[in-house]
Amino acid sequence: MANKSVYWIPVIGAFISLANYDKENGLSEGWSYYQALMIIATIWIISLVVFYK
User: Own/partner pairs for 2-8, CB < 8 Å, 24+ apart?
Assistant: First the structure.
């Protein structure tokens, strides 16, 4: 558990797949990246609360 950056690998993968999925469904590219960023920000805040009490 020393290297917490390993946890960001699936998050980055989810970000890319979310952006591509929304782009394929006809939404604008900016909106899909905004939506994925909001999900990542939520995960980041939760992980800060859990890991750094």
Answer: 4/51, 7/47
